[in-house]
Amino acid sequence: MDKKMMENCTSMMNAMMKGGHSSGAGMGMMAASGGLLGRRFISRSILSRPLAVFSIGATVGALVYKNRAEIMKAFEPVVKEAVKTSARTGDAGKDFIQEQRERLSDIIAEVKEEEEEEAKQQAEESD
What we know:
By secondary structure, this protein is mainly alpha-helical. The protein has helices spanning about 5-20, 25-45, 50-65, 70-125. The termini are far apart.
């Protein structure tokens, strides 16, 4: 977005807010421009300064470490559901692999039977 487009978006948002409109398009435009401004702020001011990135990381790490018991309690249902889902997925995967093994063994058995029949036919023809 260039400067002119940004000014147009801002003026349109102001007009919508004054008029009390809350249309989906207007809300989407406000969210998009807010996201654009936020992305520019983060990329230009914060991410360009390594000390700021390190400070944010250290702060988040300290807060997580301090509140780890509460965090674990909050995420316990999510972890349980993830374990249940992975167990179900694993069981479904095992069933699928066993079905494929059975199909493959059936195909191998059919091929062997066909080879034996062909060998018998060739033996009868050569006699």
